[in-house]
Structure formats: structure tokens, C-alpha cells
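Case study.
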Amino acid sequence: EIVMTQSPATLSVSPGERATLSCRASQSVGFNLAWYQQKPGQAPRLLIYDASTRATGIPARFSGSGSGTEFTLTISSLQSEDFAVYYCQQYNTWPRAFGQGTKVEIK
Amino acid sequence: QLQLQESGPGLVKPSETPSLTCAVSGGSISSSSYCWGWIRQPPGKGLEWIGSIYYTGTTYYNPSLKSRVTISVDTSKNQFSLKLNSVTAADTAVYYCVRAHNYYGSGSYYSGWFDPWGQGTLVTVSS
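After joint prediction, the assembly is written out as follows.
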């Protein structure tokens, strides 16, 4: 089974600043990685799939990169609505697996 | 626009076998372009994939839950279901149903990213 590890657990960022979130897979998942955003009381929302493709309606300030075992989600200039928990997820092999999440909070 | 709506018992007792259903609207569950799944989230914790099913009935389960989980599909009702045997307090969670987009790779189609998600239904296990 592939284990997904996200870092840091919590990221404190000021509005307007750049946020960089990391996700590491215990073995290669190729480009088969997605990122989700979850706000309190809401279901997760797809942000990025295939490691770097933005989902429909996702602002350009969100970008994904990486392949194999190392991935990054970058939010170029944090807006107030971006403070949330972010999860990565691999879909290269069964069982599907999520990272434990990174909480982006206001500094 | 495709929408997913979970329904479930809400409160169940330990050792019971609750069943959850996901009604799919705005699209057909019988599309070969998609797979359907269940994901859960205990209060204050992260996301756990439970399992997935194709409209043909082919299933994949999380090994940690496989012995207690059954996912089925009813194409006539455009819905799919989750049954979880012998629940304990550790099964208390919000249960989400999702659609997975299939992608092409290595000569075949595979289940990919999850979008959209249902709003989730809380299942509480308590005596």
C-alpha cells in the first residue's frame, strides 16, 4: 500500500503571501495525484488532478507540480477564502490513499 | 450538473450493520467514463477511502475495511450503496459518496480523481 505524507501539518500564512504545501508518496505514483480543499463543515473540493491540471473553476493562483514521489501545491497569493485544509490523494494503485492533510491558517 | 446525495440511518448501535445509499442525479451511473466510491472522515480527522465500484459491479475495497464492507450498485435506480458490518464507535464518521473520473493509461482505463462529492452524511455509532 502507498502511504501519502503531507507537510507541514499546519502552515501559518498572511493574506497575500505565497503558500507551498508538500506531499510525498512512499512509492512512485507517476502523475496520478490529486489535491483537494476542505473548509469547515463542507465536503472536500477537487482543486488539481494529474498532479498539475486545475479542475474546472479553480483560480489560477492554485498550481500543482511534481511527479513520482514528490508533489507540491502552491497558492501564489492567499485570499481569505483559501484558509482551509488541503489533502493530496494518489490514484495510481489500489487502495486509494489520502495524505493526512495540511491546515493553512491565518498568520 | 451531476449531484450526489447520501442517505443513511444517522444513529446506529454497536454491532449493527447500517446501509447508506448515494442517489445520483444529473447523469447516468452506467457511464463507462466513471467509477463510484465511498470515503469517510471521523470527526476532526482526515479522509479515508472505503471502496469503489464500477457500474458493472466490479469493486475495490480498502484492505483495512474489506472484511466488513459491501458496496453495490443499482443501475435501475441510478444509485449505489454501502453496507458496513458490525460497526463500533470507531466507525463514527461523515460518509461521503463520490464520483471518480476514469483515465487512460498503460493500455486500459483506471479510476482516477474524485469529483464531485456528496455533502456527506454523519453516521454515529453509540449505544
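Observations recorded in class. The CA atoms of residues 52 and 100 of chain A lie 20 Å apart. The first strand of chain A starts at residue 4 and ends at 7. We will return to this complex in the next lecture.
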